[in-house]
Amino acid sequence: MPPTDPRGPGPHRFDLIVRSRRAVLPDGERPLAVAVRDGVIAALLPYEAEAAAAETVDLGEVCLLPGLVDSHVHVNEPGRTHWEGFATATRAAAAGGVTTIVDMPLNSLPPTVDVPALAAKRAAAAGQCAVDVAFWGGAIPGNAGELRPLHEAGVRGFKCFLSPSGVEEFPPLDADGLRAAMRAVAAFGGLVVVHAEDPALLTDPAGPTYAQFLDSRPGEAERRAVERVIAAARETGARAHILHVSSASCLEPLEAARREGVAVSAETCPHYLTITAEQVRGPEFKCCPPIRDAGNRDRLWEGLAAGVLSCVVSDHSPSTADLKVPDFAAAWGGVSSLQVGLPAVWTEARARGHGLDRVTGWMSRGPAALAGLPAKGRLAVGADADLVAFDDTAEFTVQAGALRHRNPLTPYHGRTLTGVVQATWLRGRPVTDAEPPFGALL
After folding, report:
1. Which NCBIfam families does the record cross-reference, listed alphabetically (predicted)?
2. What do you get for the CA distance between the two ends of the chain, in Å?
3. Which of 30, 112, 268, 291 has its CA 20 to 30 A from that of 336?
4. Can you give the pLDDT at residue 11?
């Protein structure tokens, strides 16, 4: 390679340099030039540093973020690809500044509960993904012997339910099944991620309204299940993570477990942080566990600020419109928000005095650490060059039909949000419709 080629060897010869006066790091914002070589961040240079590169992009005052990691996405392919699929989900992710997703094991057919099912899912995803994709396995009754082989095949951990999942092919674990799965996973240092609601405290809704649906899934059902998971983690030594915490009543036992040193962490979702029960209008707002009242939302923000909750992820769980019937007792439970999670959270975080450094901690570094993806979610030398240009002051009104996921349903339709993703790079390459998808299966 000629010595004048900017991609040649040398400390200041790079494939790409992205400059921003507001690069977002864990300790705040500062001017930086992020230099990329071979898909990896090779150097963090002063904003005005002179360095040769094949391409240079100057964002000026537009923020430069690490790509988001969404560790809770239901892609549903194969089997229910008409609900969502890898092509549409990953395009939506990239448009929303998400450069890595971790796919949930259920709602696809077959569910990812053994190695052949994982192979089927990877085959379905191959060549379709606009961002990088990793996979969760599933823990269901009778498959404890499949967990180590799945772990060795590359899944990031194991999803289980303590209450009915909504699909027959992914049944819940009872108390004995949970402990058995956690003992099996503890033996190889794996992770169990838990949908935590106590079925004994759940009831059928008394009628079709949202209030009746909300009454059927009380916060105490979440707290009771969280306490069960903490006890099982303490007994087995397994690492556990509580998915989509909606009830602030869970914060107290989670904080106590953290002080005790029990290996239990927890996440929440944009819809629990930005929408209240009082704002629910139609079945596109229905999810399990449910969106609760404004006071509960405020306490969830306090739990985030205190570090009791470590991740904010979408739980993107779409369906076709015919399943979102007006009856809240019968409608499919799932929120579609993969593309708008960042601006939704930023709109509320900004109003509460949090900076983008906190937001990227919750939406980039936290999920990357949870899923064991050390090359993701940070602007650091040696990390993958997954970058997002984010205008943190621009406003837009969400139009469901303009979003990139497969079905035009979202509770954010018509809501004005602050923050626009202007560009997304995956391992130093821009993600655009003009280029074939090049996301990797992790």
Report:
1. allantoinase
2. 31
3. 112
4. 52
